[in-house]
Write a structure and sequence with these properties.
single chain; mainly beta; Immunoglobulin-like; eight-stranded mixed sheet; five-stranded antiparallel sheet; starch binding; CBM20
């Protein structure tokens, strides 16, 4: 089993990106590694790991985050990991993780900060070739859900009548795994919000279409896409003590960072 991690981050000269990864076995014993990533253009960082170094430690789950270190090994910036990047792993597969840097969002107050058991991740299926979509949307109302539409037939071919509903996995995160055997890459897609009752699309996320960078998946490869925040409008309520009233401001989620 191999795992490849990719993230885009423009680091100043003298700074480097590191992957801090924790491997868990079925008994939840863990091994922690700090891996230096490499870049050819100063923007796209990559690192590949192999389970051969853990041959006596069968991996059931992987949890990780990214951090920036200076040339003395001191951590000078760490991405937000309040809701950890964690996945169940099938050691007969190879994984490609394409990620975005996560800053602390202004919607962090919506999270309940509960410690979830990892066993629920085992319910996410893997195929001979899979694409796993994951996005954060804690602001979605209880009568709505997140779904997926894309350029290929299995993803609805942009037809608003055929969105693929995603599964809520807790802490504001939604996930979906699809069989990528009949999907042509690279792929364009967007997340949408649908009504639980009518299944109609009520809101598209804003901005450009999302795109995969991988152009081909080999047998056994699993492409994991962590899309960061769902790019839809969110209402922020601020209380005015002087007038004793609430003021509501609408923002796009992608702009809300501290």
């Amino acid at each position: 089993m191999k795992m490849s991690f990719q993230i885009e981050y423009r680091a100043p000269f003298g700074q480097s990106m590191h992957l801090c990864v924790t491997y868990y076995n079925a008994e939840m014993h863990r091994r922690v590694h700090d891996l230096l990533m490499h870049t050819d253009d100063g923007n796209t960082w990559e690192v590949e790991t192999s389970s051969m170094v853990l041959s006596h430690f069968p991996i059931a789950y992987v949890e990780y985050h990214y951090q920036v270190e200076d040339d003395h090994g001191k951590c000078i910036r760490k991405e937000w990991s309040g809701v950890p990047r964690v996945y169940a792993i099938d050691d007969s597969k190879n994984y490609i993780f394409q990620d975005q840097w996560r800053d602390l969002s202004l919607q962090h107050y919506l999270f309940r900060w509960t410690k979830r058991p990892l066993a629920y991740l085992k319910n996410i299926p893997f195929f001979d070739r899979s694409i796993v979509f994951r996005v954060s949307a804690p602001h979605i109302k209880s009568h709505l859900r997140v779904a997926l539409l894309g350029s290929e037939g299995p993803l609805g071919a942009w037809n608003m009548k055929h969105p693929l509903p995603m599964h809520y996995i807790g802490d504001g995160d939604w996930m979906l795994s699809i069989n990528a055997y009949a999907i042509r890459l690279p792929l364009e897609y967007k997340y949408v919000v649908v009504s639980d009752e009518t299944h109609d699309v009520v809101e598209w996320e804003k901005g450009e279409n999302r795109r995969t960078k991988v152009k081909r998946l080999e047998w056994g490869e699993q492409l994991v896409l962590h899309g960061g925040n769902l790019r839809t409008d969110c209402e922020l309520v601020c209380h005015d003590d002087y007038f004793n009233k609430d003021n509501t401001i609408t923002h796009e989620i992608r702009e809300l960072y501290i």
